[in-house]
Amino acid sequence: MKIVIMTLFPEMIEDAVRHSIMGRAIENGLIQIEAVDFRAFSGNKHNQVDDYPYGGGAGMLIMAKPVVDCYRHIAKEMKSPRVMYMTPAGKVWNQEMAIEYSKEEEVVILCGHYEGIDQRAIEAIVTDEVSIGDFILTGGELAAMVVADSIIRLLPNVLGKEESFEKESFSEGLLEHDHYTRPQNFEGREVPEVLLSGNHKNIEMYRRENSLLNTLKKRPDLLKTVELAEKDKKILKKYNYF
Ligand code: SAM
Fold first, then answer.
1. Residue 59 region, left (φ>0) first, then alpha (ψ -120 to 50), else beta?
2. I want to staple 32 with a disulfide (CB 3.0 to 4.6 A). Which of 2, 112, 186, 201 is the partner?
3. Cα dihedral 141/142/143/145 (nearest 10)
4. What domain count does the chain have?
5. Where among 98, 122, 152 does a domain terminate?
6. What is the pLDDT of residues 201-229, one digit of tens each?
7. CA of 117, closest atom in ligand 1
């Protein structure tokens, strides 16, 4: 997969992708990430990409031309990528969307700054508007990294055997079960006994119950959309969900 991030701050992206799973995926040739500075497409000697908004109001706006020219330049090397614009007005990113995008061959992510980007650039090149939550960031770079990270860890061979995403929160519509490692007793808090039993069936049952209980306590909204098996319903009944 190739991800191209259009930004005024390419160093922010280049620094962030060097580490951990993303860095390893790049090194192993499993993913290509390129940060492209659309200031290079300003077309003026001061490299200016922003201007005052028509109609007045506070703040500056990124002009349409550098963004569209930059996109047309990178698109020459691509087939027909999906182009995401990071914006608080977009659809709120979730695991289902990450799974959907992880099947794409090429993705372009456009990062705004200042008050955002001239609407005509968005109309000309963007296929999807994406938000990472109901709050305002200074620029789209951190949002782009959140989105890219969540896609990349789903790609084949990116996670090692020990890091499987299949049982992670949201992969089955529920939050994950709790985790424990050594020591067995930490400041008087014991690891649940069943996890030490070696009985895999009982461990699986305990983890499913724990996962359902965590979801019920922390994100009960998820239970409304997930498909529950009869035995899940029985467990939830025990905790007065039904
Ligand atoms: N004036 C815009 C508004 O009220 O919707 C906010 C602009 S914000 C200061 C600058 C840039 O940060 C946006 O163009 C967008 O790319 C990015 N951004 C801010 N919040 C975001 C969020 N929650 N999700 C994704 N991108 C965001």
1. left
2. 2
3. 90
4. 2
5. 152
6. 999 999 999 999 999 999 999 999 999 99
7. 14
